[in-house]
Amino acid sequence: MRKHVQNYVAHLHSRPAHHRRRFSMQAAGIITLAVFLVWLSTLGVRIATSGTSAPLPDSAGSAAALLAGDAALPAELQSGAAAVQDAADQSAPASSDTYPN
């Protein structure tokens, strides 16, 4: 097999440039088609199982309810939000530092 491939490559080197380009485009097309077919064959499996990987959030914790103020943040998010706000307050310059009179 290896000898056959080496002979074919040597044969390609003796061919004109347009033949070599045509062969390389055909080889790239075949490889791309093979990758696409593998991806397509696994797509149905991934779509069928994608709905079972994570539960949907309840309406009380939805982003719209949080933005509207109708729902409270869970405890772990409240502590994280407080930490982010504290860090922002400490790094923010005083108003007199930002715009001198």
In summary, what is this structure?
With 101 residues, this protein is mostly helical. Helices cover 73% and strands 0% of the residues.
Walk me through this protein's architecture.
The protein is mainly alpha-helical and 101 residues long.
Count every helix, treating DSSP H or I runs of 4 or more residues as helices.
Answer: 5
User: How many strands, which pairing sense, and closed or not: the largest β-sheet?
Assistant: none
The helicity comes to over 70%
| Structural class computed from helices and strand pairing | mainly alpha
Distance between the termini: 83 Å
Pattern of helices and strands: HHHHH
Beta percentage is under 5%
Task: Average the pLDDT over all residues and give the rounded result.
Answer: 76
What is the total tally of β strands?
A: 0
The low-confidence parts are none
Question: What would the principal axes of the Cα set say about the shape?
Answer: elongated
* Cα-based radius of gyration, to the nearest Å: 30 Å
